[in-house]
Specification:
The chain is of the alpha/beta class and 212 residues long. It is 30% helix and 14% strand. It folds into 2 domains: 15-54, no CATH class; 57-210, Hypothetical Protein Ychn, Chain: A (3-Layer(aba) Sandwich). It is built from 6 helices and 7 strands. Strand 3 and strand 4 (127-128) form a beta hairpin. The protein starts with a helix and ends with a strand.
């Protein structure tokens, strides 16, 4: 019986120590999947696989991304980078959202427009449009599991803006029966009391900080 217990114990240790599999491959094999549909050699040339580093930690990865800029008329580089991160995790490394990785994004200061609906009510209770050209991109990332948090300090600042001088970013101050600032943010958007302190708090919880 003692020998049987020892044998079973050894088998259990072996199973626990085996690399977790993703799409039939182990954690040390790279890549699990191909972003472009081509092998690395076919895409970049002979010998590429031998000099390519894949990530080693593929489970319980947590990342907090700071979004404090908005690019008018261009590409919201921060959102694009988050999408690239997700593709690398899921396609290249076979990671599963929620189980293997979590991504949160903190929006504040100059990036605040990313939290707003493209069309909404400003501080003069006038409907304006053109607030956020990237509303669709934010929603797409939400659908991929990213949680967005909007800084309430930034919200207060925009509630105090002169709606004549700042027709796009000014937000209404709540009054019974009238529009409210919270109504102007993208559905699914969460709040944080202060963007910078929340970033530090996420880091204290084990999230790795990224500034795209």
């Amino acid at each position: 019986m003692k020998l049987l217990n020892l044998t079973l114990g050894a088998l259990l240790v072996g199973l626990v120590s085996m690399p977790a599999l993703a799409n039939g491959k182990g954690n040390t094999e790279c890549p699990v999947g191909l972003v472009s549909g081509k092998t690395l050699e076919d895409e970049f040339g002979p010998g590429t696989s031998d000099i390519t580093k894949c990530i080693k930690k593929r489970h319980q990865v947590k990342m907090v991304v700071q979004l404090n800029q908005y690019e008018s008329g261009g590409r919201a580089y921060g959102l694009g980078n988050i999408a690239n991160i997700i593709d690398d995790y899921e396609i290249t490394h076979g990671m599963v959202p929620g189980r293997d990785y979590k991504i949160v994004a903190v929006i504040h200061s100059g990036g605040g427009r990313l939290a707003l609906k493209n069309t909404g009510i400003n501080g003069a209770n006038v409907e304006v449009t053109g607030r956020n050209a990237y509303e669709g991109a934010v929603k797409a990332l939400m659908n991929r599991g990213v949680k967005f948090y909007f800084c309430q300090n930034t919200t207060r600042t925009w509630m105090d803006q002169d709606p004549i001088s700042f027709p796009i970013t000014s937000l209404p101050k709540y009054d019974d029966g009238e529009a409210a600032a919270t109504d102007q943010i993208i559905p699914g958007m969460l709040y944080t009391t202060a963007g910078l302190t929340s970033i530090a708090d996420f880091q204290a919880q084990g999230y790795q900080y990224i500034q795209p």
